[in-house]
Amino acid sequence: MFWNLPYIAVVILSVIGLATILLKRNLIKIFFGVSILTSAVNLFIIALGYREGGIAPIYTYAVSENMVMATPQALTLTSIVIGVATTALMLSFAVVIYRMYGTVNVDEIRELKE
Amino acid sequence: MIPGYITTNAPALLIAVPLLGAFLSPLIGRISRDTRALWVLAVMTLTTLIGYLTAFLVYTEGTLIYVFGASEASLAIPPDSGGIPIRIIFTLDAMSALMVTIAVTVGFAVILYSLTSDARRSGLEAYYTIFLLMIGAVLGMVSTGDLFNFFVFLEISSLASAGLVAYKVENGRAVEAGLKYLLVSTIGGIFFLFAIGILYGQYNALNMAMLADMIQWTPLDKLALVLVVAALAAKCGAVPMHFWTPDAYSMAPSAVTAMLVVASQASLYGLFRICFTLYGITLNYVTIGWVIIILGILSMIIGVTMAIPQKDIKRLMAYHAVSQTGYMLLGVGVGLAVLGDQALLNSYGMTAMEGGIFHIFNHAMYKGLLFLTAGAIIYQVGTSDLNRMGGLGHRMKWTMIFFIIGALAIAGIPPFNGFASKFLIYESVFAFSPILSVIAMVVSILTLASFVKVFHSVFMGPPLPGNEQVREAPHTMLIGMTILAAIVIISGIFPEFFVQNLITPAAHALTDQAGYISAVLGGA
Questions:
Q1: For B511, what's the count of Cα atoms within 13 Å in the CB-facing half-sphere?
Q2: What is the ipTM of this complex?
């Protein structure tokens, strides 16, 4: 049970993230949802990569039997960087939209609907 | 003739050249506008040549493996790694080579076109950087053999495309469209990463061949497949998640729209690659095949019915793009639905897949051409509203001819290429289920009707007031269109040549899961 806690957290975070994206009307809050969802996936991959008693693969000091391949950590690091870029681009779009329309409410940003 | 170090490293150069060119272009653009234009054109020409070289190598010598960081391709699995391919591996089989060919051809035509069509705008240093990044990302998506690497290129292409869609930043609607596209692709990307996590947790591998070798079709694998299909179907603009397509396609500059079509098709490629190569025979192919067929049919019908009442020329074409994506899903979906049954696969399954894959090729060409003609019209008239165009036929003769070629090709009229691929689809889908084939034909007729309407309102009749000064589009724009139009005509007149040499190997590469696995993992 105890070792499943990270996965339970992943499920809770995903639900919160998806609910925020689907239910909130404020663009900034939708971006929160996207960030929370990204964090959920990052936590999921990190939790997958955890091996009890494993050591980081630093060859100089490690005992070679228990080294853990660092792929999940590498994946998460990449995903975090991508997440930063995405968030930055989304927020800059929100800035432009706020200047143009004077609102960040998605119900009022409806110029394209016809 | 070509130095050996280029041929051996062609897959790496395919990504390296556009990426390096992208990041150097703002620097070189400081010299002068013309230098920048020359630089961008040179980078794209080089990329195109390397793309053709890579595709040629794949078609003549079979699947190409490139292992990053290894001295030779046979080191795909390092001897001390315990049988796991740790390094990032590019695996180019015939299907990838076809997509590379499409991407570089359209990329070259649109870059040429865009040098004039967007020359009046500001912010060009960023524009060309992002444009080349997008082309590099598309090339990466179709050549990689590593799931996580695919995700990274998917995200690069999402970010670059969203940035380009919102390029006309002074127009709030363009930013709105860019934001919509970015949200859809980001959420899709998160789903995709989640699926990667699920697969990695079970099989400890990210390499597609390695995963394909071990995949079991456990409940978790099913969940991963659902996430992947949802993510990539959203990215390629199939129906339940198609709402971003008309907005993004209509708001982006026209050259970008033509490239967006290719980016969507790279997602489509990812969908097919994962269904066929990663899961292959282990997945419940009848169910998944039907899911893809139904997505395709819905895209076809909803796309074309939404297109007919549109008043904006690019929005109308965007809905047709949704509808044409349906044909590709239908063709390849039929192939997937009979994947396990060798007799049915031989009798019509392969033909359906060839039709679907040929349609990917044709669609990239004629849809790119149509968006470029729309861009030329908007460039000269200054509006995208169909009601405010009219009588342009005399003043924009070449654009009109290119538009006719594109419109007849999309409607599936011989001798243009749309007919060749649609005929393969009709014929084989009829053997599978006649009703689907009838739906496909009806959609084609509606497409023709819609384009006749566009043709009439844009080119026929007297010139509307305010359009008297309209002239023909500039030469570089016409050259870009000529390249695509020539391919549309040639592949329509000699479809056998294209099908035998390009499409059939691609279709076989998709169904030949064992060949893909052994190419990477060796005979073991």
A1: 26
A2: 0.93
